[in-house]
Amino acid sequence: MAEMDNNMYMEVMSNEGTHSKEKGIGECQDSDVDAVPPGKQVVVVQQKQHHVSLGIAVGCVILVCIVVAVFSIMTIQSHNENICSQTKVYSLYTRWGRTDCPSTAELIYKGVMSGAPHSDTGSGTNYLCLPHQPRYNFTMAGYQSTRGSITAVEFRESTKKFDPTKDLHGLNFPCAVCQAPRSVSLLLPAETECPIGWITEFRGYMMASRKDEKRAEFVCVDESPSYIKGSDKPDGDADWEMASRLFPVEGRCNAEAAVGGLPCPPYVDGYELTCAICTQ
Cα–Cα 20 to 30 A to 209, which of 17, 24, 29, 110? Predict the structure, then answer.
């Protein structure tokens, strides 16, 4: 009897143990966290917190780098804008026939309008503004026959009927080199006004060498020219052979002129051409 009781007790215990094992397996299947021993749960939580902290730190570093980069770009742009605003751009032009510059420009220097003697077949073809006070280096005394020559420019208008310059026949022209606080200069022929957006520095008349003499450049001489003091002579012809001579320029366009080309109208054959010096 006692043995039977013991067997029943062992069976009951065995069933309870089996039930306990099945319950444990079911609980482990319901929750993975509950299946991890308590000590390891702490480690997993700490690892997750570490990953979150590391992500935040990396994000902060990236954000700081972006802010620094944007600030650097803005600083560089501001610096470049300051440099550009401080950089001044100028253009140069020569005001032939005057010793001063208009109010729109600054005088660099003034001098004597000069070119090759009209009797020379060589030397230069362009006009230069020679300063009043030359500075020499090595020189040779005397006149060397093979050298190029340069001399003062003398205005010629033998009829003395062209009003702007009729009193300047035989006189030498001065010049002034001017600096305008703008980047471009333009000689605009056959015009008295500059295009819209441009500044008219001065107006004048186109002039060049005489048509049957050595060819020279076309220049714009101020509409109210002055002359070099001391160049006036009784008849205006005392230095006829030595001078570089300057004449008004006429437009030619009819068949009789034999040089053709210009459309008439709007050009008028034989009219003296105007000009303007413009800057922008």
Answer: 110
Instruction: List all residues 6 or more positions away from 201 whose beta carbon is below 8 Å from its beta carbon.
Output: 93, 95, 102, 104, 105, 178, 180, 185, 276, 277, 278, 279
64-92 burial, b at 16+ Cβ within 10 Å, e below that, comes to: eeeeeeeeeeeeeeeeeeeeeeeeeeebe
Question: Residue 219: enclosing H or E segment and its boundaries?
Answer: strand 219-222
Domain ranges in the chain are 41-87, 91-133+149-279
Rounded to the nearest integer, the mean pLDDT of the chain is 78
Q: Report the 3 state secondary structure along 154-210.
A: EECCCCCCCHHHCCCCCCECEEEEEEECCCCEEEEECCCCCCCCCEEEEEEEEEECC
The residue type of 203 is: R
